[in-house]
Amino acid sequence: MATQAGPQGLRRSVGLADYTTWKVGGPADWFAEPEGLEQLTELVAWVRREGLELRVIGAGSNLLVSDAGLVGLTLCQRRLQGSQLDSGSGLVEALAGEPIPTLARRAARAGLAGLEWSVGIPGTVGGAVVMNAGAQGGCTAEWLLDATVLDPQTGATFVLTAAELDFAYRHSRLQQEPLVVLSARFQLESGHDPAAVGQRTSANLHSRTSSQPYQQPSCGSVFRNPEPRKAGQLIEGLGLKGLSLGGAQVSPIHANFIVNTGGASAGEIDQLIALVQQRVAEAHGIALHTEVKRLGRFGDLALAA
Questions:
Q1: Which one from 33, 116, 268, 291 is the annotated catalytic residue?
Q2: Which of 170, 189, 212, 262 minimizes the number of CB atoms within 10 Å of its CB?
């Protein structure tokens, strides 16, 4: 339990359903949305002094937050926005809370190629770095130069190059280490026709929105593709489209999406994920691993990010 008055912006017992794209999740003991790096640093220092757990979320598009909520401080970076683009060199720098689609469109207008694939990802720059987010044949690792991170245990800030982030398919070392992404730099290709880059960007967005259930709350793709197979094809092949558990449903539009049809709980979504994994394992001997990260307590296990 915190004993001292905390920094500006701290709030108690804030429901997290409004901060996740699945629209589920219980209350955070403590919650804050810093609007600048100085405020973020003060909040992290307070957590360290108080000995509390720290959870960092961005757009909440790749998270399943427990119905029981989260202990400690949940720090939401979605207000930590801003970017700088150099149309001559192709160098792009963005704060961790900058929405990836916004950055992709800005890059296109500047004639910078490389982020067209990312326009349909409902996440932030920080989340993209942590997850090595990807779509449409592209991924973060291909264009990231480096990321500035904060170690909440020491307060130290330092830069990690793309090579040091140990990127793999939907993976980086930041998924195991408690480092907070503050900003990232991308090296894009300069000198392209803005209209042509913009057209490719818009085409990628249309491809995603026309084939995925963007009108219902979801987390995006639930499962990693067990290359060379596609998770959605495996699930659809078993006739699991439309399978429901409470308010959670395997999307009839795209089988690698689980949607909240209204009133779903995090527990129902978690159970439906497990059921799909069981069916695929029984039929194909393939273990589907999730892209989505669980935060908080599910069943008898306390699962961390």
A1: 291
A2: 262
Over residues 201-248, the pLDDT tens digits come to 999 888 877 788 888 999 989 999 998 999 999 999 999 999 999 999
CA dist 219 and 189 (Å) reads: 30
Tokens of 156: 């130290």
Tell me whether residue 221 is one of the annotated catalytic residues.
Answer: yes
Local confidence band at 304 (pLDDT 50, 70, 90 cut-offs): very low
CB 219 within 8 A of CB 62: yes
Residue 255: is it exposed, middle or buried by C-beta count within 10 angstroms (0-12/13-18/19+)? buried
In order of 7, 56, 210, the CA distances from 123 in angstroms are 27, 13, 19
The answer to whether 250 and 218 are in contact (CB under 8 A) is no
Active-site residue among 221, 251, 265, 294?
221
- Has 291 been annotated as catalytic? yes
